[in-house]
Amino acid sequence: MKVLLVQPPQFGKPGFTKIARVEPLGLEMVAGALIDDHQVRIHDMRIDENLEKAINSFRPDAVGISCCFTIDVYRAQRIARRVKNAGVPFVFVGGLHASLNPPDFDNKDIDCIVVGEGEFASRDLIGTLEAGSDLRNVPGIVLNTDKGQVFTGPREPVKNMDDLPFAARDLLPHGRGNKYFFNFWKPMATIETARGCPYRCNFCSVWAFFQGRCRTKSPERVAEELSRRSEPYILITDDNFLLSVKRAREIADIIKARGIKKRYSFQARSDTICKHPEIITQWKQIGLAHIFIGFESLNQEDLQAINKKNSVETNEQALKLCQDQGLSVTTAFIINQDFEHSDFEKLRNYIVSRRISLPQFTVLTPLPGTDLFREMEEKIQIRNYELYDFIHSVLPTKLDPKDFYKEFASLYSAAYIHSGVIKRRSSRLLKDLAARRLSLPHIIKVLRGAREFADGANYMQPLNTAGQSGDSH
């Protein structure tokens, strides 16, 4: 069969896509499971929105649509409608949000929803569809029928992560080129080495998606995937790369032995960093340049409220340890709806005084399917999924919304415009320009994106123009 896999477009002002666009790794993994038996293409609408042209040139028998994020729900629905109108007989949707919330896709334009890991479920789905057999025999999918949705039963997660197919990364008709980046890291590839997290932060949907299980690829498999990439920058997508310090150490040893030269970024918990500073040193020696740490808050009470199982003091220690190693650090903070002017000021001062190079600020968002959503559901004021983008509050704020978003924007202004971050990175940028790893238009694009985040008016516009329910189901 011919299968077209579609990544929805992204838009909005401000928007994270102006400062980062990562490859559609989930779809590339699904494609890797299909490619031996079917003709497969991937269409990334963030790069090319002309979906009809892609359909007319390929004429697929089935189209799969990714919906990992809540903000993609209406976009996925609209894509499904366009696909059906173009005459494609079978449409399915998968991804994190789709798996946790199948009723959002109970409509005539969508034939089924893949629940959970998509590689082998999609392979069995398409194989059964091609054979003309009963789809109810395929575990791990929800079928949309005239009598309602029918769940075919759970599918066992992949036991051995090394059994997963290699991502089919070369199926994009426009090519990879310099299309994917993270700030000034370009060109960049992503790699997944593990799935799941043992912690239970109430705002997180990842551990729910993976049913609380944690699984890892072997060090040898990770090194093999890295050796296949030509990109100089690698973003490891694991939610907790240091899930096993022993494994991380073994991966680093193999990378060094094979002479793989890359610059790496990964996400880790501060408590693991403090307990095992030697692992940071080891990875710095083989190319670690950036680390993402979820600080979440400067208040211990807030950490307890979200079930973070960590401390403010540990975060502070980990930050210093990483900075002493010369690493660029993204500290992620969650902005609570109870924030007052003094809370914003405290956080601004902290970012500037600690010379944090790449802070990230997101508004506390109860994503459907999370514990936080169930706890807060009665308080949610905005049901429009387009605003579940982590930069708008769907819950009532203590401050007037205009004041709240003005203060929120001031965090980015302090971090990226007035803190001297760009000046401190200018030497590296000039080297990348000289080596043609970066272009001046790309640098300008990222800087403009950062400035959009620093303008409070950009947050109010979507609130004034967006509906409260989005597309109807």
Specify the helix fraction band: 25-40%
β-strand number: 17
Tell me what portion of residues adopts beta-strand conformation. Answer: 15-25%
Q: Name the CATH architecture of the largest domain.
A: Alpha-Beta Barrel
Q: What is the CATH class designation of the largest domain?
A: Alpha Beta
Q: Assign the structural class, choosing from mainly alpha, mainly beta, alpha/beta, alpha+beta, or little secondary structure.
A: alpha/beta
Q: Give a quick account of the main beta sheet: strands, pairing sense, barrel closure.
A: 7 strands, mixed
Question: How are the secondary structure elements laid out?
Answer:
Elements: E1 2-7, E2 20-21, H1 25-34, E3 39-44, H2 51-58, E4 62-66, H3 73-85, E5 90-94, H4 96-100, E6 112-114, H5 119-131, E7 141-145, E8 148-151, E9 181-182, E10 188-191, E11 194-195, H6 206-209, E12 215-216, H7 219-227, E13 233-236, H8 245-258, E14 263-267, H9 270-275, H10 277-285, E15 288-296, H11 300-305, H12 312-324, E16 328-335, H13 341-353, E17 360-363, H14 371-376, H15 401-417, H16 421-434, H17 440-453, H18 457-465
Parallel strand pairs: 1-3, 1-4, 4-5, 5-6, 10-13, 13-14, 14-15, 15-16, 16-17
Antiparallel strand pairs: 2-9, 6-7, 7-8, 11-12
Helix pairs in contact: 1-5, 7-8, 13-15
